[in-house]
Amino acid sequence: MAGYRTLMEYEAAARDSLSEMAYAYYAGGARDEVTLRANRDAWSSIWLHYRTLVDVSQRTSQTTLLGIPVESPIICAPMAFHRLAHDAGEMATARGVSAAGSIFTLSTLSTVSIENVAESTSGPLWFQVYVYKDRAVTVDLVRRAESAGYQALVLTVDAAEIGTRERDHHARFRLPKGMRAANLERAGFDDLGSDAEGSALNTYVRELLDSSLTWADVDWLASLTTLPIIVKGIVRGDDACRAIDHGAQAVVVSNHGGRQLDTAVPTALALPSVVAAVRGRAEVYVDGGLRRGTDLIKALAMGANAVLIGRPILWGLAVSGEGGVHHVLELLRLELLEAMALCGAPTIDDVTLDLVGS
User: Fold this and answer.
1) Which residues are bridge partners to 64 per DSSP?
2) What is the rounded distance in angstroms from the CA atom of residue 296 to the CA atom of residue 131?
3) Which sequence positions are flagged as catalytic?
4) Phi/psi at 27 (nearest 5 deg)?
5) Can you tell me whether residue 303 is helix, strand or coil?
6) What are the phi and psi torsion angles at 250 (to 5°)?
7) Is residue 129 situated within a structural domain?
8) Closest CA to 203 of 181, 186, 218, 185
9) Domain assignment of residue 64, given as a range
10) Are 233 and 159 in contact (CB under 8 A)?
11) Does some domain include residue 339?
């Protein structure tokens, strides 16, 4: 989009176009937002040890993730309630991600249904799932995702309790009239517009999600489907290994964007131990605070197969719909290609650990 050259410029423009409640919900983190800030700062504190005199006249960011060819190792993270940013909601986001040649991950808490999103795009889709106290709800969601052609399930495991997001409480977050959690209408769990005190989302999580979740439930989910399972919310090497032992084909190093446990370790600091523990047995992805192509090349050099981008995609959606989503991802891809050139790495396979000094 003309006029926007960085993700930070998109955020500034999005803040002007979003309601105060929507911006607070998207942008905020848990408690004092220490981890929210540290996620970003941790990537900036890593230094690149670039190579010189390498032929980088021909560069490509193309790669393959769980067998899916993509234009770059940049995946759209699962995020709730896209219609707060744009009337077409997740359908517009999915189309923008597809135009960028990437993978869209639909949140269970989307404002457009599993089926309608799938009908809106020809691009690859993953589906993020929670385990509900009523297991039949989760089973239904998995079956619907399978039938609609989604290619993997992303199980979020860091939401046994919802972290207190003080911005949401102050804004009394709830979905506006006429907007619902579209995937949960069958179960009667779709209304987040009630008059509950504080955040309606907090009430929802505490009443409906199962805080007794254990690794046995990962086995249970894997038993339901032949789709690959991606476990999201890992910050420890031993937990990454457990995820693989219980059927995961990939893990996401994630602290929920700083929205759950405040002072949780920044993902840039957690990533190396997870990669070392996994030892190539599964793909490793990472999210949290990545805002520049240089952040992306550091994550890849440290062993991530891909990065997940969250909030900046919502900023693009809020400013320019699907075109804004596409442009945000293209800005990041071009910055990554620039960083690859300046680091002497013409392909993703050339982005190796020595670039961060180890």
Assistant:
1) 69
2) 31
3) 256
4) -85, -25
5) coil
6) -155, 155
7) yes
8) 181
9) 7-346
10) yes
11) yes
Q: Are 135 and 129 in contact (CB under 8 A)?
A: no
pLDDT in tens, 213-232: 999 999 999 999 999 999 99
Tell me the sheet residues that pair with 209: 132
Tell me the percentage of the chain whose pLDDT exceeds 70: 96
Tokens of 297: 């090349």
Phi, psi of 209 (to 5 degrees): -80, 150
- CATH number for the domain harbouring residue 67: 3.20.20.70
CA dihedral 110, 116, 121, 124 (to 10 degrees): 60
What are the start-end ranges of the H helices in the chain?
A: 7-17, 20-27, 34-44, 89-99, 114-120, 135-148, 166-171, 200-208, 215-224, 237-245, 267-278, 293-301, 311-342
With respect to residue 108, please indicate whether it lies within any of the assigned structural domains: yes
Instruction: Tell me if 140 sits within 8 A of 132, measured CB to CB.
Output: no
Does residue 43 lie in a domain region?
yes
Domain count, the chain: 1
Q: Residue 171 has what pLDDT?
A: 79
CA separation for the pair 253, 257 (Å, rounded): 10
